[in-house]
Write a structure and sequence with these properties.
With 217 residues, the protein is an alpha/beta fold. The chain has one domain: Rossmann fold (3-Layer(aba) Sandwich). The chain is built from six helices and twelve strands. The strands form three sheets. Strands 1, 4, 5, 6, 7, 8, 9 and 10 form an eight-stranded mixed sheet that branches. Strands 2-3 form a two-stranded antiparallel sheet. Helix 5 links the parallel strand 9 and strand 10. Helix 1 runs antiparallel to helix 2 and helix 2 packs across helix 3. The longest helix is centred in the first third of the chain and has 20 residues. It is globular. The protein starts with a strand and ends in a 5-residue tail after the last helix. The mean pLDDT is 91.
């Protein structure tokens, strides 16, 4: 299942438009904050899909019965670009365990690249709902490598993939690779094109550089 939040009329599109805007995005603090806000909205929407149970809450004047999360999800993200988006979801799922993946593009002299997965720091996802985030779903290579790394630690009951922007190619690659898993892909918008270097068009540029400054490849 693919859920595109930007198709609905909500404040979500205001934050999405600002991180796309080449003038506004030059403010790194605002760029990170907008990613965090988007993460909060994704978390709220995903929360509707989770399992709840009725519990008794004691107030100063009596008791109330409320439906609360039965189990906390496992939140994971890909360093470094995913950190603000991850923080937004952690603001809502504040009791969740966390996982971090070091995955990056390694370019050669011909500008071709492979995905390098250095490490995963996380508990086992067995019998948990795994929510893994990366701002940009381009070819899907980083997310595919990261999810495969988590599957070596255990099998989640459901995987929610969160990307602010996605390409059609990236979504199809995820669906084809993990066709036998229960997975929902959440994104703000689906863009049609990828450049020769696999950047999404119109996209927004390099999310990691815009959030934290340029890096050496």
């Amino acid at each position: 299942m693919v859920r595109v939040l930007g198709k609905e009329n909500s404040i979500f599109n205001q934050f999405l438009s600002e991180i796309r805007d080449r003038h506004i995005q030059q403010d790194k603090l605002r760029f990170r904050k907008n990613l965090e806000r988007l993460g909060e909205i994704f978390a709220y929407e995903i929360s509707k899909e989770l399992t709840y149970e009725e519990k008794e809450v004691v107030t100063p004047l009596g008791t109330a019965r409320m439906n609360l999360l039965k189990d906390q999800p496992l939140l994971a993200t890909i360093l470094r670009a995913g950190l603000p988006l991850h923080q937004g979801m952690l603001n809502f799922f504040d009791h969740a365990d966390n996982g971090f993946v070091s995955a990056y593009r390694k370019y050669d002299q011909d500008e071709d690249f492979v995905i390098k997965l250095d490490y995963i720091s996380a508990p086992s996802p067995s019998d948990s709902v795994l929510i893994i985030s990366d701002p940009m779903l381009a070819t899907g290579g980083s997310l595919i490598a990261s999810i495969k790394g988590f599957l070596e630690k255990g099998k989640p009951v459901h995987i929610h993939v969160v990307s602010v922007l996605a390409s059609k190619e990236g979504i199809e690659n995820l669906k084809k690779t993990f066709s036998k898993l229960k997975m929902t892909i959440w994104t703000g918008a689906i863009d049609d094109e990828l450049t020769a270097k696999a950047f999404i068009v119109p996209g927004l540029g390099d999310a990691g550089d815009l959030a934290y400054g340029k890096k050496e490849d």
